[in-house]
C-alpha cells in the first residue's frame, strides 16, 4: 500500500466520524447554554463542566485504546463477553476511574472556590451532582465505546481511528446531558 492509499483510507474512515463529532459538539453547547437556571442555582457548577468533560475524554478514550490494542493483539474477541476477564477488567477500571475522578473534581472545585472566597454550593451538592453524572455518563460511554470499537473492528475499520472522535463527541454530549440530569436530581432532592 502506498502512502497516498494509506492516507486516503484514513480520511475515508475518519471524516464521517469527525463530521458527526462537530455536530455533537454543537449540540452539547446548546444543552450547556440551556442550563442557565441550574448554573445559577448551583454556584461552582460551571467550574465542574470542563473538568468533567475532560475526564470523560481521558478515561473513556483510554478504554477505547485498551480495547483497540487488545483486538489488534488478539487478546479479546470483538463481541461483548462479560466472561472475558480482560474486557471486564477494562470496563470496571474505566467506570471506577470515571466516577472517582468526577468526585475528586467536585471536591477540588469546592476547595478552590472556598479558598478564593467565591460563592460555592455545599460540598454534598457538588459531590452528589458529580457522582451521579459520573456514574450515568460512565455507563452510557462504556456502552458507546465498546459498541463502536467492536462493531467498527468487525466491519473492517481501525478501532483506533474511530475511538477518539466517538469518545470526544459522545463524551461531550452525554457529559453535559448527564450533568444537567444529575443537577436536576440533586436539586429535586433538596440539594444534599
* Low-confidence segments: none
CATH level 1 class label: Mainly Alpha
User: CATH homologous superfamily?
Assistant: SLC41 divalent cation transporters, integral membrane domain
Largest sheet: none
CATH topology name: Tetracycline Repressor, domain 2
In total, how many beta strands? 0
GO cellular component, one term: membrane
Subcellular location: Membrane
Transmembrane segments: 14-33, 89-116, 123-153, 173-191
Keywords: Ion transport, Magnesium, Membrane, Transmembrane, Transmembrane helix, Transport
Question: How would you portray this structure in words?
Answer:
- The chain has one domain: SLC41 divalent cation transporters, integral membrane domain (Tetracycline Repressor, domain 2, Orthogonal Bundle), CATH 1.10.357.
- Helices cover 82% and strands 0% of the residues.
- The chain is an all-alpha fold and 192 residues long.
- The N and C termini lie far apart (59 Å).
- 37% of the residues are buried.
